[in-house]
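Escalated from tier 1: S-adenosylmethionine holo job.
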Amino acid sequence: MKDKFGREINYLRLSVTKRCNLSCSYCGGKKNSDTAELTKEEITALAEAFAEKGIKKVRLTGGEPLIREDIADIAEAVKNVKGIEALYITTNGILLSEKAKALKEAGVDGVNISLDTLDSEMYKALTGEDGLERVLSGIESALSENFKRVRINSVLVRNKNDGEAERLILLARDKKIDVRFIELMPFSAQGENEKLLVTTPELLERFPFLSPEERKEEGAAEYYTAEGFSGRIGFISPRSAKFCGSCNRIRVLADGKIKPCLGNSIAYDVRDIIFDKEKLSQRIDEIIFNKPASHHFEDGEKFRNLSLIGG
Ligand code: SAM
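Tier 2 regenerated the structure:
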């Protein structure tokens, strides 16, 4: 359905847990063990209600979604909801090699893997875990399962891992992977520090061998290609090029709140009406219709911890 600004909302980002097995500094999180989570049945009921409103694409996220023992069952239930055409998952990749096969069998179409460095010491410094090898083997498992899409998402922080950009880009030369850079958002003290933000225009200047793809794909990323590359390079630029005017997303948080805009503090609790089809349908209508026009990162509005919201 459309919101009051005429934007067609057809993409649901569904957080299945606040728990995470990493503590990335820019995310604002320490490892979190909050278990106030929707059950598989609640998640399915929400997915059904959203599908009736025209949601066609769902992304499971968190926290770290693969921490949930029942993640493949959740994926299968959501994928089987009438109207859901595509199901994706976003993960830090730590548990991916163990779970890639079950996710593929459950009907997951694509996997986004967060990875900000290819240096194992730096990985440990950024995430608090000695996990790079596990993530790399998770990427290989995802590739061998032949998901329709395997992507790497990277956040660069100046003077920490911005020197890793080139090595990350080269992953798209060597493997059939899209590597995407997401501009740092204000979800932590680090994210609020403008000096640490590495913008898309800055990266494009640094890598002049990238040329823009002619075909514009639906979604937040702008894609670039380079000669001899198997995959593409994408840029998601919420800071340097606000894309709220074409935002098609809505979010469900792990505890059952609906959040219509990532960069806005409004969230509506619907957990007590999840199994009341009529009430839930009405509530979703109101929430989608009143989706805020845009985020307010640039006004210094502060939001804590993306892993609690659902990245
Ligand atoms: N645990 C999963 C993962 O690592 O992909 C899903 C949740 S995580 C919060 C989702 C994405 O948000 C990750 O790619 C992470 O890099 C990104 N992220 C976290 N904090 C951010 C920030 N301050 N600015 C931009 N992206 C951020």
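The first strand starts at residue 11 and ends at 15.
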